[in-house]
Amino acid sequence: MNNDELKFRINDLLKEWILFRDEALATLTKEDKKHPLRFEEFEDKLIKSLPYKNREYARIVTAKMYDDFLDFSNYYSEKYYRAGFGDCLNLVIMSLGGASK
Question: What distance in Å separates the CA atoms of residue 95 and residue 36, rounded to the nearest whole number?
């Protein structure tokens, strides 16, 4: 297997692993429940503090901000999971006598 094929296979493994872990990570533990993202609560407080004529615009902006925050979180979570998993694979490869990527 050449270097490009190895990188492609590692990328496939990373994608499969992230999808596999997604199910387990979606289950909230008691500790997870102690750290909720209370976006709706903050949004409601903000909206109620505004004049009525500005509320709909504020809802649109906060919805966009929420979507951007989720995109940002998902991107960096995947990026760091991939990096960590790649590091683990490199350690395994090196321990078996192979060269790291």
Answer: 40
